[in-house]
Amino acid sequence: MPRHLPALAILSTLAAAPAFAAPNLSGTEWRLVSPQAERAPTIRFDDGRASGFSGCNRFVWTHQDGKSQVAGTRMMCAPAAMRTEQAFLALLEAGPRVETDDRATTLSLVAGDTRYTFARVGAPSSAVPVAEHSEYLTVAPFTRPCSAGAGKMDCLQVKGADGAWQHFYGGIEGFTPEPGVGYTLKVRVIPVANPPADAPNRRVVLERVVMTEKAERLD
């Protein structure tokens, strides 16, 4: 029977400065897209620490007094998930450098010949809270499978001002979509101060439905 130990077990001590020491990462969350994994690791950066899902367990990556430590819960999972986790934690243990694109929509952790690439989760944010504002979202008529933390789920597909479709993790308050119907919504984005490590840093609240359009699934 799998054993879940709630206490954190220290896995390693890193000599190199951690990736979360890089500027403009605080308050951002990322999900692994390459290499692909059935249970994709996630990582969220906060001041002086990072945390997330490592493929089977939760982990915390801290930096204090010039030292970095990776700690995690210890639960047994399926062999594939354990291999994903071991490889990801080995990357963190190697003290990877961080690389981001100009728009801060992708992030790579690189150590030697190993590169893990992550996609940004949710709306862009920075260490300086984004002011509360309204914006328009296009919502696709059908959800798509996505990974969230320790399990799979179906995510809304939304498109904002940047014109790129993306998974929408979480819900839009006051909005209950009907399958097979596409929407254009006006929403209110409300920043959340000091959210928990695994929680969104903003609330998205429906202001009004601008337009609806029925569609048929072709695939």
TrEMBL record:
Residues 24-118 form the DUF306 domain. Residues 1-21 form the signal peptide. It comes from Crenobacter luteus. Pfam families: DUF4377 (PF14302), META (PF03724). This is DUF4377 domain-containing protein. Residues 138-210 form the DUF4377 domain. The keyword Signal applies. Keywords: Signal.
